[in-house]
Amino acid sequence: MGLLAERTFTSTVPETARAGIPADAREALLAAADRLLEGDWLVLGWPRPDIADPDWFVDPVTGRRAPQSDYAFAIDHRDEESTGNVKAVWELSRHHHLTVLAAAWWLTRDERYAAATAAQLRSWWAANPFLSGVHWTSGIELGIRLLSWVWVRRLLDGWPGAPALFEENEAALRQIRWHQEYLAAFRSSGSSANNHLVAEACGRLAAACAFPWFAESTSWRAEATRQLEESLSANTFPGGVNRELATDYHRFVTELGLLALAEADRAGHPLDPSTQRLVAASVDAAAALLDPAGRPPRQGDGDEGRGLVLDSPQTDPWGTLLATGAAVFGSGRWWPPVHGGVTSVVVGALARRHDVPNRPDQAPRSFADAGIHLMGGSSPDGRPALWCRCDGGPQGFLSIAAHSHADALSVEVRHGAVDVLADPGTYCYHGEPEWRSYFRSTRAHNTVEVDGADQSVEGGPFLWSTHTDAVTERADGGRQGPGGGRLVWVAHHTGYARLDPALRHTRRVALDQLTGELFVEDELTGSRAHTARLHWHLGPQVRVMLRENEARLSWPSSDGEQEAQLRLPAQLRWTAHRGETEPVAGWYSPRFGVRVPSTTLVGSGSWSGTLALRTDLRLTVPPPVGGSSVETAVAAPMAELALGGIPPGTRETQ
Which residues pair with 490 in a beta bridge? Predict the structure, then answer.
């Protein structure tokens, strides 16, 4: 096996770290560990009552059992008839629940947690020999599993059974070696070298540093370091945003970068300063992307992927990311408040403090290379105000743009913690192709669909045959924050040129923080007749009354009932859709694997030449007790907000 004679574990957590765990984080983690031992556990939202002694191959979604003994590369893991919902099968074998149990032992020295962890690891190792079964079909799963094993061994250090479970256990040693050999031989490449490659490299690096028990460990560490640094650089814009343009994957990859920094520091082989700067930029971008309620945008795919789970699974992963980033790099004065937990304390204890120069001294609002522009979020009196994300950049990463959506020029609008004009989310990856296509389609986003087609041509559930890259022309318009004025964004795309070489969609957005008004102007040009559908997706908390082209919106807010007027383009015929399936319309996915009905307003019409459309969202002042609401006064004429207005002589028909 190429084992070294001397095998000890030295990659431990400093003893001082335990005292730094906040009391609430400790209590939440132990409560989660106790629920786990009692069989109360969710995996991607699905109950796993067998969690205390799991079947590693069962899919809780469909009830099917994935192949256990088949040769891994003969298994089609995208075939739900064969594997069930493979995400749900794989997720449990990332062993995040075992890092929760190991962390509970580290905090309490309660034998129950360590014994349960050891029993499940022995069970998994016995059930999954090399290249046998579904758990050997995807490299990212192996990389994350290695990370979990490193942290299980680290947190169980001091438990008498730990050496017998790992460095003295032939089954463990074989699995650790097999995982590293697999990732060295079958690493993701080409158009699949996205977040998968980062996770694979991070797992390899962690294992080579923490388990240096093999003759190849030194070369594995060096190779994994190169792979990690190259893949992080390739996956990240210079401004810090992840190139997949899927916000949940930004969090995931940034988390992996922080973990890799900590492992390399602990092993005495720190990553290159350029990589340290890149991870710091990713952490700062994560802080800047959050809305005033602390919620991230919902751009692109999201599947709740994690690199490491040491806190209660109910803990906000974005809060954990920022707290861990603060422990490694320090937080900016403009950051939202961060609250430490188990993860941030122990990862921070492993990593040295990195003082990265030239970090932003105020929250970035535009990420030009990623095409993301953020507007609003605060009002002069400190009350919730409209917050808006505008999408005007590349579609996604590499030739397949796997986790991007056909959402060019879409906007996402919130008021406080409420999605007003919502991005519907992801819902699923495998097994339900109609739903997969819908949630990543143009009609599932707040933008314009032409001739019933997506902006980009779908080539498969993780493939776009064509890309629609938008171009931002203007992103400016006044100070942000209390007392700020009008904010303006302008962009265009030509994704529909395949239908008509002259076809171009330009969108202008203005947000006036003083009046609480959002203005959207769409201009479509073409050389022949086309149909258009403008979609406005309302969040599930928003109620609507639609009359012709006027919609009255209302939703709960911190001040009671908030109301708004949505004035829609009169040139289009407007209909409301909620929870429909033939065709799919009016849905929102609050998390992976879950969908709920919500209202979508659809304006339909046809045009030739030029079509100019104007949408106006205006907040109303919350009513006094016993009174009725009134519209907010407009400080400037609508003509001023039109950003140059609409060209005369337009021609539209309904």
Answer: 474, 508
Residue 96 in contact with residue 51, Cβ under 8 Å?
A: no
Q: pLDDT tens-digit profile of 239-283?
A: 999 999 999 999 999 999 999 999 999 999 999 999 999 999 999
DSSP 129-144: -TTBSGGGS-HHHHHH
* Beta bridge mates, 489: 475, 509
Angle at 146 between CA 143 and CA 147, to 5 degrees: 90
Residue 296 corresponds to which tokens in the numbers above?
């991230």
Side chain identity at 484, as an amino acid letter? Answer: G
Domains of the chain: 15-350 (1.50.10), 366-653 (2.70.98.70)
Q: How far apart are CA 507 and CA 492, in angstroms?
A: 6
Among 145, 153, 213, 210, residue whose Cα is nearest residue 179: 145
Helix axes 217-235, 195-210, angle to 10 degrees: 150
Could you give phi then psi for residue 377, rounded to 5 degrees? 115, -15
Those residues whose C-beta lies under 8 Å from the C-beta of residue 576, and which sit 6 or more positions away, are 544, 546, 586, 599, 600, 601, 602
Using only C-alpha atoms, the chain has a radius of gyration, in whole angstroms, of 26
Average pLDDT, the chain: 92
